């Protein structure tokens, strides 16, 4: 039993929380290696105060453990994370690294128990080390880091040296990223690795950062410890994400301001008995659903997505009941919005196809618009509460289990039906115009133009952004987000 432990991740990293991304300054071993230190068939990583050259097999096992030790607290809290046992930090090598498990005592102190190697064998999916994760979906990021380390080793063994007489910073795996030989006073530019983004949005376009080789052939030192270090602070896609999210909020704000007069007028019509007609009632409920969806979405977007990007203070803590309730309420209001767009399409379709016979009883529309969204919201909550990996933490807004389709299916179905309604309405209008024995093409054009006014009313414009491009230049994806956010907010 160990009374204390030297937290390897603290020794090796300085963390600053910015939203869902942890900016980590990796601290590694100082080394005076030049080209003369390169060893064939061995790969270099950082361990303690020295760079270590390991065989391919040992390198894969060691670097995967380093990927685990560098995981931020939001992925594995300190009170659950396996740490390097105190007193053994500088006895670690390529073939052996000792980890200890924390145990909280009743008096509030923490003790650490040395673990058997099989307890932290990352090649075994049943190993105890995987039980320390808050969300099992985050293990995918760990495995990605491990695969990248193995690819880095292959790169080290296959890439020829710069020069036999040049003083360089050696090719190495710093715990998160691979760096090639770099001449003194020059920089190595690489892309921010995907596996460092946990829970938050990944940058749309790859972000580059540089690591400088200082004289005489040293990677930068962390000032307080004189260990090698890599500054990943530039990997935070803060400015780009913030601008995009502010654009989304602004679009919703404009929509709410434009909707307020229409909603006020429709509510005043309700007070007038002569104007209590089904058509106005349908419009009023659609306006109310859009307004509620806009208000709830702005609150959700600001508190849970935008605020963590611009401030370290959070008004709503992840993992709380209020946080999860707000997300489910957001999905309910969005689904209700889709259902009322469907109700508008269904009502107008029945009105035109049935020769303008207006339906008086609207109970079925109330059940579809306000009642039906309760079903997917309840099903989603139950699935996430009992079966979701995100049930123990987070606010359920970035799940990987596919349960979001509980909301997506009825929304997509409503859009598909509205497209059918729109096409049939155009067909019926053309037939009725032909029946009047008019041969003026302008009449058809006016009818078609008038019908296309229904497109935003039915929500058919969302079909434009239903497919998110996965390939092509990153500027296309950036443009997709802006078009999607503007169409969504300015409906």
From TrEMBL:
Pfam families: 7tm_2, HRM
Principal localisation: membrane
This protein's GO CC annotations: plasma membrane
Transmembrane segments: 246-265, 286-305, 338-357, 364-387, 407-426, 447-467
Membrane topology annotation: Multi-pass membrane protein
InterPro entries reported in the protein's UniProt record: GPCR_2 (IPR050332), GPCR_2-like_7TM (IPR017981), GPCR_2_extracell_dom_sf (IPR036445), GPCR_2_extracellular_dom (IPR001879), GPCR_2_secretin-like (IPR000832), GPCR_2_secretin-like_CS (IPR017983)
The G-protein coupled receptors family 2 profile domain, residue ranges: 151-239, 244-491
Keywords assigned by UniProt, alphabetized: Cell membrane, G-protein coupled receptor, Glycoprotein, Membrane, Receptor, Transducer, Transmembrane, Transmembrane helix
Location(s), subcellular: Cell membrane
CDD domains, alphabetized: 7tmB1_hormone_R (cd15041)
Alphabetical GO biological process terms: adenylate cyclase-modulating G protein-coupled receptor signaling pathway; cell surface receptor signaling pathway
GO molecular function: G protein-coupled peptide receptor activity
Family, as annotated: Belongs to the G-protein coupled receptor 2 family.
Protein name: G-protein coupled receptors family 2 profile 2 domain-containing protein
